[in-house]
Amino acid sequence: MISNSTEIKIFTGNAHKQLAEDICKNLGIKLGDGSVDHFSDGEVAVSLYETVRGADVFLVQPTSNPVNEHLMELLIMIDACKRASAGRITAVIPYFGYARQDRKAKPRDPISAKLVANLIAKAGADRVLTMDLHASQIQGFFDIPVDNLMGGPLFTDYISRKFGDGGLDDVMAVSPDVGSVARTRVFAHRIGVGLAIVDKRRQRANESEVMNIIGDVEGKHVILFDDMIDTAGSLVGAAKALVEIGGAKDIYACASHGILSGKAIERLEKSPIKEVVLLDSIPYPEDKPACDKIKYISVAPLFAEAIDRVHEEVSISTLFR
Q: Is the entire prediction scored with pTM above 0.90?
């Protein structure tokens, strides 16, 4: 797949080695030889065991839990490549941590997403390749090019295959909150189904109260569509309301990023949600029990094609359609 005369190198930290290996497999190249370890006091120690001088370097590292640890790994990997005279450095961040802190919701709040964007650019990254940012305006926080890939088409293919034989007349896409309406509308348009919205009022962080359902979901196969599932409290609350208030037939959920923190797995297991479809932008938490409801779709082919197009200096706009 790779034909540019400039050599391409792909390295990874400890956040998601499997995804980096899968991307390399799709590209037909080997993962770069390097390690990310720690000194006895916990400081990150990065070692590159092959030259990157003049190379087109891609660093695959979602800044997922533990967010600060993985972010520091990424920053130090960027610095190591910069000081080793890499030709260009692209930070491949399938999940961008701190994205939810993108504005001042109240006085004296930090805008941490902007701070992280500054850190990545200052460390020496030349561009960023990410997926389904929590807020699209975060692209503007960077002073370097940002390509924000969309996971929606991957879900479109999955849902179309799942319900295609029986038709999509009784399928309804539902936004779990007002903030996700735009992305859910695009998803609903892609698969040709109606749109409903769960109107809720958030009481405090990671807790919400469902207030109303806008749209008719009675007797429908409902697909809750969001960009991430963290504690799953809001998602499960929406699912219960859709069944108990709206009379939905069954509930499915699709989300790009499965953070799955706290009691998320326990909540999903006890919820009326029949299936949860996630992209593998974040690995399944090692400390969590297995959940049969959760299915993963690989993002490796999409990132591999994006990396190839960036390397070849050709447009990646077709990947957004």
A: yes
